[in-house]
């Protein structure tokens, strides 16, 4: 798969390509035995992911910080699909307290958990610290998902063990992971304001998404757990993600219109990785346009992934965070 295939939509070895839609890549899949959490499922790629998962009869939990938008998303899904199973739960990924509260609320539902789609994200925001004192793009895109995943793992392991059905975790990364800071992850200066670059901080957080998926994948393989963890670049799609760079992105699109996807195409790689039976057992991979691709050398660096794992745990332990009531 190269730029030619991306532009023309020509299918790759998987039989799918950049022009494939989420519905096309899941045609014929019966997900009625699956429960899925989709973070940021109220808009953009996450909404389409939730919609198509529900269409394939999965029980979907939309995890969102804006409950009004999430309930509207749920109603839209139900309008087209009266038998859809969709629930909405509050989750603010840039708050450790909120992530813990979400896990408590999900546990109270006493549902199994087969699929975790770590989709939510922010892009190019001005320098800002989360309520836990951590740079916002890193806190939202990586750290919140890192904590969420760790806290949901026991449930996922239990589900995989008792049902014999493979669990799958999908991290939404980006091609932007290649444009991080010089050392990949700037551990010593994670919150530094004076040298902050909104673009590189986004790249850093998306690099962290791949490193997290790869490190978790290795750990689960070591334990012999029946859960795969992969990351994806969805393509370039005009969504509310661009809210901090609307003019820049609209101008960029004028010159690169041939590279852009619509939202149904943007959700295809996530759905392919989450549901395609041919991907059984495949873990620690990176997918673009529904085909495996090699990410950057930093993204493949096992030492960096291990260091990020320890660093993330220390950040969470060190944050002066009140426990969720
Ligand atoms: N669109 C692209 O071209 C593109 C390219 C590469 C990668 N991606 C990745 O794809 C994923 C989905 O992006 P999208 O394009 O679909 O953007 P989007 O429509 O803005 O969706 C992102 C979702 O994340 C939610 N979110 C943001 N901060 C959150 C927080 N603190 N807690 C909980 N939810 C939060 C947003 O909720 P609010 O509405 O409340 O903000 C929104 O529902 C992101 O991870 C993004 O990095 C997108």
From TrEMBL:
CDD domains membership: retinol-DH_like_SDR_c_like
InterPro entries: NAD(P)-bd_dom_sf, SDR_fam, TIC32
Name of a matching Pfam family: adh_short
SUPFAM superfamilies: NAD(P)-binding Rossmann-fold domains
Ranges where the record places region Disordered: 1-22
Family, per entry: Belongs to the short-chain dehydrogenases/reductases (SDR) family.
Protein name: Short-chain dehydrogenase TIC 32
Species this protein is from: Pyrus ussuriensis x Pyrus communis
């Amino acid at each position: 798969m190269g730029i030619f295939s991306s532009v023309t939509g020509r299918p790759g070895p998987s039989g799918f390509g950049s022009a494939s839609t989420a519905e096309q890549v899941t045609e014929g899949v019966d997900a009625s035995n699956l429960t899925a959490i989709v973070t940021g499922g109220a808009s953009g790629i996450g909404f389409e992911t939730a919609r198509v998962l529900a269409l394939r009869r999965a029980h979907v939990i939309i995890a969102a910080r804006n409950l009004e938008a999430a309930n509207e998303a749920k109603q839209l899904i139900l309008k087209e699909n009266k038998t859809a199973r969709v629930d909405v739960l509050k989750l603010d990924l840039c708050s450790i307290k909120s992530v813990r509260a979400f896990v408590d609320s999900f546990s109270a539902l006493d549902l199994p958990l087969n699929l975790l789609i770590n989709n939510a994200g922010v892009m190019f925001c001005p320098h800002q610290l989360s309520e836990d004192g951590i740079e916002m793009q890193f806190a939202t895109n990586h750290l919140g998902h890192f904590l969420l995943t760790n806290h949901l793992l026991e449930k996922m392991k239990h589900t995989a063990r008792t049902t014999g059905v493979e669990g799958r975790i999908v991290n939404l990364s980006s091609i932007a992971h290649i444009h991080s800071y010089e050392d990949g992850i700037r551990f010593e200066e994670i919150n530094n304001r004076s040298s902050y670059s909104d673009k590189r901080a986004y790249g850093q957080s998306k690099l962290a998404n791949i490193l997290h998926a790869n490190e978790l994948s290795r750990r689960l393989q070591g334990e012999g757990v029946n859960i795969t963890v992969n990351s994806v670049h969805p393509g370039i799609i005009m969504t509310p993600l661009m809210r901090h760079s609307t003019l820049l992105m609209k101008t960029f699109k004028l010159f690169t219109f041939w590279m852009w996807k619509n939202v149904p195409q943007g959700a295809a790689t996530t759905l392919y990785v989450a549901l395609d039976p041919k991907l059984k057992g495949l873990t620690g991979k990176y997918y673009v346009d529904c085909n495996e691709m090699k990410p950057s050398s930093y993204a493949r660096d096992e030492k960096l992934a291990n260091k990020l794992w320890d660093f993330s745990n220390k950040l969470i332990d060190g944050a002066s965070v009140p426990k969720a009531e």
